Every structure is written in C-alpha cells, then in structure tokens.
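Lab notebook, bench 4. The sequencing result for the construct came back, and we need a structural model before the next group meeting so we can plan mutations. Quick request posted to the team channel:

Model the 3D structure of this chain.
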Amino acid sequence: MSISNNIPNQKLPLQGAGGLIAILGAGESGVGAAYLAQQQGYDVFVSDFGAIADHYKKQLQDWKIRFEENGHTEAEILNAVEVVKSPGIPDGAPMVKKLVEQGTPVISEIEFAGRYTDAKMICITGSNGKTTTASLTYHILKNGGLNVGLAGNIGKSFAYQVATEKFDHYVLEISSFMLDSMYKFRADIAVLLNITPDHLDRYEYKLENYAASKFRITQNQTGADHFIYCADDAETIKVMEGKTIAARQLPFSIEKTIETGAYLDKDNLIINVHQQHFQMSINELALQGKHNIYNSMASGIVAKVLELRNETMRESMGSFRNIEHRLESVGKISGISFINDSKATNVNSTWYALESMTSDVVLILGGVDKGNDYSMLKQLVKQKVKAIVCLGKDNKRIHDAFEDDVEVIVNTMSAAEAAQVAYHLAEKGDTVLLSPACASFDLFKNYEDRGKQFKDAVKEL
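Done. Here's the predicted structure in token form:
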C-alpha cells in the first residue's frame, strides 16, 4: 500500500500561510502547482530528479521561481512546510520516504489546488476509459453553457487553471497515483468507471490495494454529493459490499435495468436521475463499441445530475470527437482502415479496442510489458485477428501467448516497419489496429510519440 496513505490526518498549512513549499517534479502538474503556490504567498522551490523540459524551465524562470534539475537538494526540501508531489513519483522514492518519516505532508497537485477554488468538482477515475469519459463530459457541459475547465491527467494543470481562471465547474481526470496523495479534497460528483489490474507494481502487486486507491475518489463525500459507478464491474461491486458510501449512488449497466441511473433497453440508452428522463439510440452515439456505451452512460448521468437539457446532451453525445491516440481513425488505403489506439498501454484497453472492431483485424501489439496477462485477449484474437505484428524489442511473451491462435506473428522494430508489414498482411475490408497493450518506452518517448510515428507511417504508404 502506498506509504502516504498511512498518514491521512496530517495537519496541513492554512491557505496562504506562507513558508516554504517544495514541488517534486517539474512537469505540467508540478509547474502549475508552483505558480499557484507563489500566487498564494509561499516561498516556492521546484526540484526534479531528472532534466526539466525547456518550456517548463522557461516558465519557472519567467515567474522567478527557484528550481533545480538532475537531483534533489535534500536540506532544502526537508525544510519545507509541505511538499506537492508529481503523480509519477512513487511513494517508495527515497526523498518521499524521508519526508513522510519526518512528518512533512506530501500531497498531490489536485489536493493543493482544490483549496483555492469553490468550483464544483466532477472527478473521473477508472482503469480504462477515463480520458474519453472526461473529454466527453467536458464536451457536453461546455455545450450546455456551463463555465467549465478540464484538468487532472488531461490538458492544462489544474493548479495553473485555478490560479488564472474562474471556472464554476471542473472535470478532472484522476489517476490512482493522484488519489493516493489526496486527503481533504472532495468530489461533488465522483465517477468510477471500472477496476482492472493496472500499475500493480505500485500496489505491492495486490489488486485490493489498487482498488482501495480508486475508491479514495469517494472519500469526504456527503449525502449531497453523487457517486456514479458501473454496476457490471465485479471488482467495483466487491469493494462496495464492504464499504459505506455517503454520496447518492447512481449506477449504470448494460446488463440489467437500473431504476435510478442508466441502463440499456434494446438499442436505447436510458438515463433516469431526479425524475428526469433521457433516451438516445446507441446507434446515434459518436462513440461506438460496448466500452463506449459505458463511457457515454457515465457522462450522461453527470449531465443529468447538473440538469442539462436533453437536446444539448443528444447533440453533444452525437457530435463528440474522440481524443488523439484513442481508437483514432487514421484513414483508409486500398479499402483497409487504419486505427491508432496507441493510448492502449494495458491489456484491458486492447480488449476494449478489439471488442469494438467489426471487421477482420491485423493487430499491432507490443512494447514494454508490465507483467501482462494476455489470456483475456485470446478469445477475441481467435474471433477477429488474422495476424499480429509485434512492435517492440522483446516480443517473446506475445509469441508464447498467441502462437496457437493466429497463423502469422511478425516482429518489427519501428512504427514505419509495423505499418508497412500490417498493410501487406491486410486485405480490402480489413482493419489495421495499433493497440499495443504495452508501454512505449523501449522504442518511443511515450505513447503519443508512438501514435504520431504510426500516423506518419500510414500517410507514407
């Protein structure tokens, strides 16, 4: 279990109390937190164990905020009244352990920034679908005329927006790593999409620890708040059986009828909240596939809780364009469709992508394997995949997992090579799907770089 979870009742500094705040990590969240802390009258010191990207360095210099890179000055950081930690830094990092041992509060950017805004918080978490659901929710609320910001794991830093904007609502995509360092923060509307094994290396390889982290999204909620969750998700239901949740519960399901919440009636998505009724054919949804029905239900419930008009919801849910690198259509060549799902960095995401395919698939898989269990993909691979193109330095586990299920498994070492090989293996009417189920760091900077290189390669075909 993450170390900072053991100290939830820390005494935190009062707003604008001054003193030194140290920021660990100088990415989007860290630099945004530094700006807000300075605005609130704190002495700010930013420290990154690695190199700081040039554009973030320039921002810190322009704002006259002290910073260091490629190492930590311990004496300075240990002298801070509070430390804001980047979600990418594990609780087991030596610097974090020292801070916790001496009783210095270590919190997330979301926790810190939440103190300085009265905006309503719509917080979305889950192992899969949270970026899509956060983006769709933001799209609906903005179209509905709400003064709304989008932040968290997506877009501009929440802290920076709190410092520079005056939004009435925020849609926040929140990861388990962020939740681990959140204590007093409260979600007005909390959404938990699903719980499947991911990032277990940060949770002692125990699914129950990871699940407990996800459920921190409900902490501090009151009877006036709302908790939206998937009634079909076994892990979510398992945790809820032993837990008391103060917020009003609004489940969604495609397997059973839900009285208050959302469900599927044949091809119609039905939402009933506060005696308000919404209905829409799933064929009219911009996002297709079973997993996207769940995402649309969650976003639709949020919209109904906030009493948006049915016309706005219907138009928004029909016009939404998905985020880059998530089931993104790259185009058609010789009748072959190319789809970029580079954001699928775990097996579950790839399962969802395959589940939504309606044609034969040439699947591009591989990268840095986080201890993947490929068995859950076997059935879909047998049904839909005619060939697998491996894109990674070490593809042995993919070969071992699928050698009995597909006739062709080919190794490639670049996005251009993978796109070319997949194109030659595909026929008219097929889909070439980049949905790697793995991290990208063996051959690429990140999943965005992998997706961009794939898209560029498709254009060159």
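The chain has 17 helices and 20 strands.
Will bring this to the meeting.
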